């Protein structure tokens, strides 16, 4: 299953090997999951994607790593990406998301989706108080 | 602009007044934003929606209130609900979201959306390690 | 507002005039709403779209006309098309949708959207009983 | 396949058993489909979701039960929820949806989706006549 | 897997046989892929869909056939249709899409999706210069 | 209208000025459209986004610039981003998209969206012939 043929021996390509090595070092594990194995069909795309994911998800920033994974899961659910929902739910758990937080995340995602639909149905004008640019 | 005619004097209906009173008490403000004014066209729907929003967003739970608002914003962006993005961005700011956290939220939402698309494009099989039900 | 420049005098083009005449005759009104005025920028596309809309929405079929408009509204909400939600909500009302049915429609759309999100979040396997092809 | 580990013996939890009993009584069948078995990982979420689904889908209201299932299917298709499309197509059939109505439902969903895209492409202004709030 | 039971011997229906014959003649192959085998459950819907696909995708027009397939893939990714992404990626390859073009297509789709999300997050007003209707 | 307050004098920030200068040089115009003016609220995000857009859209690659803009438009329509649809339709026109190509683009986007919905409705299994990874 896939629209892409992943390379059989991706690390024979030195650009792919460099990315895989950086993934392993950044994450502290030998496990390279499928998204990277398939993206290896185009080393430049692999580099660009990993570079962005590393900068956004694996670099200290204003939001803590566990919460960033939970936000990532929320977006992936709304966008209907099954792979992403699976991989980042696993990442959130690995970073400490408890079953109670997981249930709470689903609660917020479900409620937001219901309200998103109701607002789309009614097409309510945005209150002036919510406009940040005056 | 709207597909619904909001009642001109919604609080003449005692069921609507009870919900509006609870919104004001729960939020500690007199401001009733448009979503509630339009939902008032059907008091039963208004009660059901407010009851869920109060239980999920305004009741202490595993995730803190500011983070819940940020997750709500992430879902609303992905679902394309402009009203919801505006109202819950304002709510997140009111609950302490800093400009740095706001920028970080956008960063995660943007990167997740890019990856969601790439995974949909390749249709990569989910790694067995990500399956929670064995 | 638009990415298309609608023709200033669309009915000077005989293909556009023929479609507009058929819209007026089919609907029993002189009102031509904006979607047709903008689609007139390309008469062949206008003909193709009107032909399909007429066959599906304005021709007797297994589902009654009012219900078809309500299904159309449900899809348009989920797809985030504000114009379509407005125009087909108006059409459903014109075909007899009551305020109670409108509220009920929103209730179903909101609940389905909440469940759609929760199922995407959990990625639950489809029960074999639901498979129609054995 | 799933991001959630469903409880092995869900009905040992009395809150889950109460919901499952109500599902069986409401639907007149012993069959509990997977969505409820997985939601049982969090009894409070299970209760909240079933309570809403029962109130909206299994309680007499302005729209008849079969039509509500068909609207639910339409939303689920547009939101890309495979599980929901399967389960509510089965429910619609159980409530009397004929093959002709099923084909007609697909016809409306397909045409609406085509038009939703075309309107998004052109970004046509909403006709004033379609505005319900003056 | 499917919500539809495809006919076991679809070509016993002369309307289905006529469409299948036209698919084979238009494409120069005996292969009839699953979408047509399942749509055959309703010959009128099959005819309508094939007629549109033939007119849009298999008839010479302003955009060349390979590019039309790539645009079709882009839409299918964004709409989350796995089947469509697979079948039209295969069609694009059959019409000459190189691995470099495939990677470039994914690059554009990924970047557009990231920006689509960021613009939705910020809800930036459209510049007057981009309005085609004055 | 916006959830972000754009800086009043963005180019007083040297990082923002450097990006704006590069946009002007790359595009050969003094016009800086709103997306960049709003993204300037966070110079690091602005740099990251422009860097990716420049690399993907303004750097010679396997697909020609006009076609990349048209693919970008297709994705933006499907994702419901009005701003993006407007700005990249304008960009495609600036790079030579004719009215006939514009109409053809809409035709493909509309047809793909109709089929995307129908496939989601039927949940047809992917033909083995379309699997690229064996």
UniProtKB/TrEMBL annotation, chains A, B, C, D, E, F:
Residues 50-124 form the Carboxymuconolactone decarboxylase-like domain. SUPFAM superfamilies: AhpD-like (SSF69118). GO terms for molecular function: peroxiredoxin activity. It comes from the Bacteria. Pfam families: CMD. NCBIfam families: ahpD_dom (TIGR00778). This is Carboxymuconolactone decarboxylase family protein. It comes from Roseospira navarrensis.
């Amino acid at each position: 299953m896939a629209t892409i043929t992943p390379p059989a021996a991706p690390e024979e390509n030195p650009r792919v090997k460099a990315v895989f090595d950086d993934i392993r070092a950044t994450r502290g594990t030998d496990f390279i999951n499928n998204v990277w194995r398939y993206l290896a069909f185009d080393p430049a795309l692999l580099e660009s994607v990993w570079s962005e994911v590393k900068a956004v998800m694996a670099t200290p920033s204003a939001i803590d790593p566990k919460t960033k994974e939970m936000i990532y899961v929320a977006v992936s659910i709304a966008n209907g990406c099954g792979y992403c929902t699976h991989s980042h739910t696993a990442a959130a758990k690995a970073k400490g998301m408890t079953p109670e937080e997981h249930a709470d995340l689903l609660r917020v995602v479900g409620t937001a989706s219901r309200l998103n639909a109701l607002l789309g149905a009614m097409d309510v004008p945005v209150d002036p108080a919510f406009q940040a640019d005056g």
